[in-house]
Amino acid sequence: MWQDILTAFGLVAVIEGLALALAPRRLDDVLAALAQMPPETRRVIGLGVIALGVVIVWLART
User: Fold this and answer.
1) Range of the domain at 18
2) Rounded Cα distance, 16 and 56, in Å
3) 30: closest CA among 45, 8, 51, 12?
4) What is d(CA 12, CA 25) in angstroms, rounded to the nearest whole number?
5) Cα gap 33→1, rounded to integer Å
6) What is the pTM assigned to this prediction?
7) Nearest C-alpha neighbor of 49 from the set 34, 29, 28, 32
8) How far, in Å, CA of 43 to CA of 46, rounded?
9) Which tens digits make up the pLDDT trace of 8-24?
10) Three-class SS of residue 62?
């Protein structure tokens, strides 16, 4: 179980690092757009991403 959790954190770090390394200016644009959104919209986006992640993990494990 701990191995799976560490693997998941490692994959998140790789994906985040790729975004920063490959498109740093685009990331600035995305962060600026997020800063202009109301907190409720950011919350809904976050919940949607969480739900998508749960579905992906569920599909990968079945």
Assistant:
1) 2-61
2) 18
3) 45
4) 20
5) 37
6) 0.70
7) 34
8) 5
9) 899 999 998 998 899 88
10) coil
* Contact (CB, 8 A) for 34 and 42: yes
Distance separating alpha carbons of residues 36 and 61, to the nearest angstrom: 37
The set of residues, in sequence order, having a beta carbon less than 8 Å from that of 45 and lying 6+ positions away, is 37
Report whether 20 contacts 27 (CB < 8 A).
Answer: yes
Q: Which helix (H) or strand (E) holds 20?
A: helix 2-22
The DSSP output letter for 23 is: -
Exposure string over 23-55, b if 16+ CB within 10 A, otherwise e:
eeeeeeeeeeeeeeeeeeeeeeeeeeeeeeeee
Q: What is the count of structural domains for the chain?
A: 1
